[in-house]
Design a protein that fits this description.
CATH superfamily of the largest domain: Medium-chain alcohol dehydrogenases, catalytic domain
Structural class: alpha/beta
CATH topology of the largest domain: Quinone Oxidoreductase, Chain A, domain 1
Number of helices: 11
Order of helices and strands: EEEHEEEHEEEHHEHEHEHEHEHEHEHE
Bound molecules: NADP nicotinamide-adenine-dinucleotide phosphate, zinc ion
Helix content: 10-25%
CATH architecture of the largest domain: Alpha-Beta Complex
CATH class of the largest domain: Alpha Beta
Oligomer: single chain
Radius of gyration: 20 Å
Length: 348
């Protein structure tokens, strides 16, 4: 089979609105699957990158790393999938497979050249294009199985928002007896609340306002506070074992670290475009940990999908047509997302 041209939505330049276009997809190789994309989630990372907020963006850019679809064709050597399978693709479509991290199932920290789903170069040096598109060709080893019981549209956001919150919650042992705070109730944050609750932790949402309090409690939070109220920081000082921040903008870290109890950890997954400042005394007193966490490996992503299916939930979504992408971006930037926009890719 030769290279195919498929329909997609792309940003042609930083800050340009996304528009309909076509992109090439490679022939289905021995270990590849061709996926008929049904849904693609909109992650805030798509917006950072489409506007080149992190720098070094490759344009035209087809964002989208929360992909759910159906296998349409398999290569001759594929053993894990057959035509008709329900599958997902997250932020990674390849890695070196040889470094210590890849061997440990931590492909997201590959030191030998991981290949992001878009805004990267594949092993042949060709640009990768993401999920705002009708089809994608992916190596079977970087393709996930979406369990029966989760519909594809609410499964799509799990491929980034789900795993990015599941991974630190699992690593830092969120569970019964643990007080966990999730900062920011957006795409990642709402999954963090659901997952931490399902793990058995006592969950608090720290949001800018009380606007979404009712939703937060329905999602599984036990408590909900507004960070715009200075009383919140006084009342909750020394409370949490674990804080996971999903905030897309710089935060006053010292204030948030004061909310940890001794030996508590503040784990940042938000990826703001500007640096933050820190007074190191904020971690000295109380032997506190300030850490970061990036998505999750392939094995752990499958574990997360199975965990969500077992607990009977996906994401809370607003399904949109492709011509609504630009408006959705504005709403995400205004913290007006409830709680993930998902593109119906049949409208591309
Ligand atoms: P999102 O849906 O926009 O959610 C972010 C939430 O942060 C907002 O809903 C808002 O919640 C809060 N927020 C926004 N601006 C704020 C501000 N100035 N001060 C305080 N809170 C603010 O975005 P997302 O898709 O969840 O992504 C969140 C961040 O994580 C992005 O930076 C993204 O690039 C990053 N990310 C990182 C990874 C990783 O591997 N580490 C993976 C995916 C995404 P409230 O309205 O409740 O305050
Ligand atoms: Zn993402
Ligand atoms: Zn590697």
């Amino acid at each position: 089979m030769t290279v195919t041209t498929v329909a997609a939505y792309a940003a042609t330049a930083p800050n340009a609105p996304l528009e309909r276009t076509t992109v090439p997809r490679r022939p289905v190789g021995e270990h590849d699957v061709l996926i008929d994309i049904k849904y693609a989630g909109i992650c805030h990372s798509d917006i950072h990158q489409a506007r080149d907020g992190w720098g070094k963006g490759i344009f035209p850019m087809v964002p989208g790393h929360e992909i759910a679809g159906i296998v349409a064709e398999v290569g001759s050597g594929v053993t894990k999938f057959t035509v008709g399978d329900r599958v997902g693709v997250g932020c990674l479509v390849d890695s070196c497979r040889e470094c210590d991290n890849c061997k440990a199932g931590l492909e997201q920290y590959c030191t030998g050249g991981g290949v992001p789903t878009y805004n990267g170069l594949d092993k042949q040096g060709e640009p990768t294009y993401g999920g705002y598109s009708t089809h994608v060709v992916v190596d079977e080893n970087y393709t996930l199985r979406i369990p029966e019981g989760i519909s594809l549209e609410v499964a799509a956001p799990l491929l980034c928002a789900g795993i990015t919150t599941y991974s630190p919650l699992a690593h830092w042992n969120a569970g019964p007896g643990k007080k966990v705070a999730i900062v920011g109730l957006g795409g990642l944050g709402h999954m963090g609340v659901k997952i931490a609750h399902a793990m058995g932790a006592e969950v608090t949402v720290l949001s800018q306002s009380l606007r979404k309090q009712e939703d937060g409690l329905k999602l599984g939070a036990d408590h909900y506070y507004a960070t715009s109220d200075p009383e919140t920081f006084k009342q909750l000082a020394g409370t949490f074992d674990l804080i996971v921040s999903t905030v897309s903008a710089p935060l006053p870290l010292d204030s948030y670290l004061s909310l940890l109890r001794t030996d508590g950890a503040f784990v940042n997954v938000g990826a703001p475009e500007e640096p933050v400042s820190l007074n190191l005394f904020s971690v000295i007193g109380g032997r506190k940990t300030l850490a970061g966490s990036g998505i999750g490996g392939i094995r752990e992503t499958q574990e997360m999908l199975d965990f969500c299916a077992e607990h009977g939930f996906g994401a809370e979504i607003e399904l949109i047509d492709a011509d609504g992408i630009n408006e959705a971006y504005e709403r995400v930037l205004n913290s007006d997302v409830r709680y993930r926009f998902v593109i119906d890719t049949s409208t591309i």
